[in-house]
Design brief:
seven-stranded mixed sheet; globular; alpha/beta; six-stranded parallel sheet; 10 helices; Quinone Oxidoreductase, Chain A, domain 1
Length: 341
Amino acid sequence: MKAVRFFGHKDVRVVNDIEKPVPKGDEVLLKIGGAGVCHSDLHIIDEGTVVGTVFTLGHENAGWIEEIGENVEGYKKGDAVLVYGPWGCGHCKPCQQSKENYCDHQSEQAYGGGLGLDGGMSEYMLVPSSRLLVPIFDLDPVIAAPLTDAALTPYSAIKRSLPKLMADEYVVVIGVGGLGHVALQILREISGAEIIACDVTEDKLAFAKELGAAYAINSKDADVAEQIQKITGIKKAKVVLDFVGSTSTIDLGTKVVSLDGDLTIVGLGGGHYQYSMNGLPFGVSMTNPYWGSRTELMEVVGLARQKKIHIEIEKHKLDDANEVYERMRQGKIKGRAVLIP
């Protein structure tokens, strides 16, 4: 079968000689409908964050059950499902709480399919346990695939700050890309806070306004922090969601977050923050969440089925993988690219 394989630093190839897996035990074989292309892939490909192994890329996956192992219960051939991305041990306390993204044994194992183990940029994908599946019912797997990260990650980040996102507060979203454009929709639907969006291109700022941002500010402006504070006033923004994670965006967040606020750094831009006593307002929580729980993914599916969130996607063939990655490097992907076998 055809698959997009990672062979090492900057070495991605589309191959046609992968043997179709046969599931056993609690394993499930999926016929892939769509596999999302994530910026995290570039950290693997260009920066070598996963080394010493060859595997199929793709950690945002959806499709239809093709075959099940002899111990699988509750699923049958043809069921449409998402694959929950972070694969934990399944037995530790976080895993038992549905938080496999924070598995106690994460440092001892590969993170999941497409992140060290075989993922879904392929015609078929072997999922090691049926516990990692989430039904999507009437959703199209091609449209739904990016929900597993591009929607789940911002949803989980927003949910942890939800008590602070009241109607008399402000929230700043930095970066209106694959995750940021979904965050705007989630904020619009589940919070009352007024939304301020920041990005470096005018088309993405216009897009942010379409998605529910009350204000859209160009991050390249020298006085971007002053522009935000003119909107928020002395109280500043109760929550800042940074979907870039560069040093400059982290610095911006520290300038506009309020006392007792949340500064949440989701993006993997490689930024640095030098802590000092006067560098952050008192009471600020600075966090770097990783993905979300499986039960939160179920909630995300609910939002999508109610048509409260929609991921802007581009459809591409598996053969176009390297071209898509190059466009992603250049910042030319609007929303999310999805590879379709």
